[in-house]
Specification:
- The complex is a heterodimer of chains A (about 230) and B (about 120).
- Chain A is an alpha+beta fold.
- Chain A is about 50% helix and about 10% strand.
- In chain A, a hairpin with a 5-residue loop joins β4 and β5.
- The termini of chain A are far apart.
- By secondary structure, chain B is of the alpha+beta class.
- Chain B has a domain of about 80 residues: RelE-like (YaeB-like fold), CATH 3.30.2310.
- Chain B has two helices and seven strands.
- A five-stranded mixed beta sheet of chain B has the order 1-7-6-5-2.
- In chain B, β5 and β6 form a beta hairpin.
- In chain B, α1 crosses α2.
- Classes of the chains: A alpha+beta (about 230), B alpha+beta (about 120).
- Chains A and B meet through α6, α7 and α8 of A and β1, α1, β3 and β7 of B.
Chain lengths: ~230, ~120
């Protein structure tokens, strides 16, 4: 199944309607099968199989598991198929099906659209984006030191300032956290972990800060209160 | 006659404000300089460190627990976790919370942290 594009559902005037622009969980259409330009993260994931991008077998397995899990998320939920005319005749049933997972809509020309909560789709995109960044950074770390540049790390360029073994540990931790998140858990732990590693890299990159943070404080000022 | 069991030390308070102390003379000097330069900012920081040094509920998150090789630091013989709070876009404070004694050891204050990782 191909996920091609997202199109906003035309909204009604009722603010209580989940399709209304102000609704807490806006719904979007995703168009399936051929016809439009592929969305960036998903298209990049599709090209994954055509490129040899990870040297380590373990890493490859991890990434593949992640992608399979993301596809399951994208394809999960009841596959109720509606006709385009159901939007007018049975709109409540269509919306309810979409809110509970996703609803398939078949247009007159056979094009299949998916109506799903926008938050679910955004979440899938976020996971896919970070998975790609992890692949890119892993590729950089697997290169010889003299063949690397910060640019090869993509959005994780800050990682390049850390020692090699620490870079690998960071990628392992982020991959694990992303796998957990992709199983349906919150992405918040991944965000916190990213922030922790970025702060560490930032401090490590500054010689004065690094020196102050690694030094042992044998005689802290126990009588001074700030 | 068997010896009576040793008297246990009273458990320390698990709640209440933390005590904020400098881990070194250098850290104290940096704190004082930062307070002179940004009194309101530092007053807010002091209250934050006293009341909720481990709070990570900011969104976007501005409090981080550092990772290796900066994850821990020895302060007065105790190996403690090392944290960082983003005071501002360029200001950083580093500290080691001691949960046992409820002391926040400030290890470095920097209002103009160079962002070499950008």
């Amino acid at each position: 199944m191909d996920l091609i594009a997202t199109v906003k559902l035309a909204s009604g005037g009722d603010p209580g309607d989940p399709c209304h622009p102000g609704a807490a969980r806006p719904l979007v259409f995703r168009r399936l099968h051929s016809g439009a330009q592929a969305s960036r993260p998903i298209a990049a994931l599709r090209s994954f199989g055509r490129r040899q991008i990870v040297r380590s077998l373990v890493d490859t397995r991890t990434i593949v598991r992640m992608i399979v899990r993301m596809r399951r998320i994208a394809e999960s939920g009841p596959q109720v198929a509606y006709q385009a005319t159901d939007l007018a005749r049975h709109h409540r049933a269509v919306i309810d099906a979409a809110r509970s997972g996703q609803a398939l809509l078949r247009d007159k020309d056979g094009t299949t659209l998916v109506l799903a909560p926008a938050a679910d789709i955004e979440r899938t995109y976020e996971i896919a984006e970070l998975a790609l960044e992890l692949i890119r950074a892993r590729q950089a770390v697997d290169r010889e030191t003299e063949q690397r540049s910060a640019g090869l790390y993509g959005d994780l360029a800050w990682l390049s300032v850390l020692p090699d073994e620490v870079q690998r540990r960071c990628l392992d931790e982020l991959t694990e956290a992303l796998l957990v998140a992709s199983s349906g858990m919150s992405l918040r732990p991944v965000e916190l972990l990213l922030g922790d590693w970025r702060a560490t890299a930032e401090a490590w990159a500054d010689p004065d800060t690094r020196e102050a943070l690694v030094a042992e404080e044998a005689a802290p000022l126990v009588d001074v209160e700030l | 006659m068997p010896k009576p069991p040793a008297r246990l030390e009273a458990p320390r308070a698990a709640t209440g404000p933390w005590t904020v102390r400098p881990a070194s003379a250098r850290a104290q000097k940096e704190w004082d300089q930062a307070t002179a330069a940004e009194p309101e900012l530092m007053s807010g920081l002091r209250e934050r460190l006293r009341l909720r040094p481990l709070d990570r509920s900011d969104n976007p998150n501005r409090t981080h627990q550092l990772k290796p090789p900066l994850a821990e630091k020895v302060v007065g013989g105790k190996r403690l976790p090392q944290w960082q709070h983003e005071l501002s876009s360029s200001g950083r404070v580093f500290y080691c919370p001691d949960r046992t004694d409820r002391v926040v050891w400030v290890t470095k204050v920097n209002l103009t942290h160079p962002k070499q990782t950008d």
